[in-house]
Amino acid sequence: LAKTTQPISMDSYEGQEVNITCSHNNIATNDYITWYQQFPSQGPRFIIQGYKTKVTNEVASLFIPADRKSSTLSLPRVSLSDTAVYYCLVGPMGNTGKLIFGQGTTLQVKP
Amino acid sequence: DSGVTQTPKHLITATGQRVTLRCSPRSGDLSVYWYQQSLDQGLQFLIQYYNGEERAKGNILERFSAQQFPDLHSELNLSSLELGDSALYFCASSVGGLNNSPLHFGNGTRLTVT
Asked: Which residues of B are less than 8 Å from A100 in CB distance?
């Protein structure tokens, strides 16, 4: 199973772009990279998923270099409501495999 | 709203007791996952079912068991409860199969063992 490493915490200010990098040196060929957001006492919420290169949706962008050993979640123009824990998850989707969450990155957005 | 329903929202019980947590997955999802989240352990993967069959097992204690029923809802049974079992228990579902669909989480059951 690919182990992930993320910064434990990050601080930012409203309106700034935030980039959170996740290292996953042992990523397997059939592994996808998925990011989740979790607010206190709520279940994690899917943000974005990718396999390689760049993926963008209405919430975030995900950058994955060619070697896939790391990935970067980019949140444009964060607001106070983006204060949450962000998890990088690496694993096969579908009906096989254990999907392991790491410790996550606690993002604190300040006014 | 993720579409995943967990009941009850809160549960308070005593040590040594047994409880059952229930999860209804999103319509159309065949895979169900259970996670435990306590303050000092983060999100711990317990077990996964796909279309009624166990597919992956994580750090699930022998005192815990789960199953997925033909209507695809799932139950997590926790027995001989200890104080350390107090945690948030999340259920998640996904389409499963070869589809690379993400997990959708419910809002959890908060278990307090006194």
From this structure: 45, 58
